[in-house]
Amino acid sequence: MSLVEKAIRKLQESAPRGVAPGQAPLSRADVPAPPPPPTTNIPVLSIDRGALRAAGLLPPEPEERQLAQQYRLIKRPLIANAFGRGAAQVPNGHLIVVTSAMSGEGKTFTSLNLAFSLAVERDLHVLLVDADVAKPHISRLLGVANSEGLLDALRDPNLDMESLIRPSDVANLSVLPAGMPSRDATELLASQRMQQVAAALGERDRRRVVLFDSPPLLQTTESHVLTQAAGQVVVVVRAETTPQPVLLDALKLLAGHTAVSMVLNQSMKSATSDYYYYGYGDDRST
Questions:
Q1: For residue 148, which of 24, 87, 216, 281 sits 20 to 30 Å off, Cα-Cα?
Q2: Minimal CA–CA distance to 111: which of 52, 44, 60, 163?
Q3: How far apart are CA 89 and CA 99, in angstroms?
């Protein structure tokens, strides 16, 4: 067993227990009624699955079911940590950062598909935040690259953050774009204001899970600030590609963090496409 697999197994063994794979993590009685819809006419974001599939961020339609099952396994411990079902509730567990050691390991793929999977939960509302402001792939692919978003909220404390959130045509899923490009984007994301914004986004609705697509840990400093603001961190690792010393250096930055999980990109190409499957922990069966 490689060092990467050992690290993943250790984290997997520390995952919360007691939540059956098919068990609903929440009941409607556990959370207050959702807030009334905003009075402003915020345009609904249309998610173009065809474009996402062409960009390699969604699998071919015949293979969606297999990927959906993998993400059910990934999301269960995250939901348990966030809401204390079957495990002790993690402080700020509803704030989840998805990151990686380096670029090219699949974190944006994971962020997007995890958001879709979480949105299926009937008692949750998912807010996907494009926090990789230097390379806002999610914003570009969803057609909101030139819209106000996270950077604008960081720049102007008087701005109503909720007015920047774009509801989508996917039930229970909203998106906060990266925001208008700025020369001081890195400094804004690495500021204490980022922690304030993250907390405010999570406090709006107790049903809300905020998922941040973060920059890689070892390539930026702002990703470390994001992980400090979040209750949970998901690290995406590309099997047989991520050097072991690189992974260990990334994990050192997360030392002392309450809840760190790993998603292993097993690099198993399907027979009919060039898409990759992602599995939780070191499960080689998917």
A1: 216
A2: 52
A3: 22
CA separation for the pair 191, 171 (Å, rounded): 32
Stretches in the chain below the pLDDT threshold 50 = 12, 14-29, 31-39, 268-286
Tokens 């996917």, located at residue = 170
Residue 13: the pLDDT is 52
pLDDT at 241: 84
Residues 194-208: pLDDT tens digits?
989 999 999 988 899
Per CATH, the homologous superfamily of domain 3-15+64-280 is P-loop containing nucleotide triphosphate hydrolases (3.40.50.300)
Residue type, 171: A
Which string of DSSP letters, residue by residue, matches 44-106? PBP--HHHHHHTTSS--GGGHHHHHHHHHHHHHHHHHHHHTSSSPPPTTTTEEEEEESSTTSS
| ∠ CA 256-259-264, rounded to 5° | 110
State residue 284's pLDDT score. Answer: 30
Spans of all domains in the chain: 3-15+64-280
What pLDDT, on the 0 to 100 scale, is given for residue 40? 55
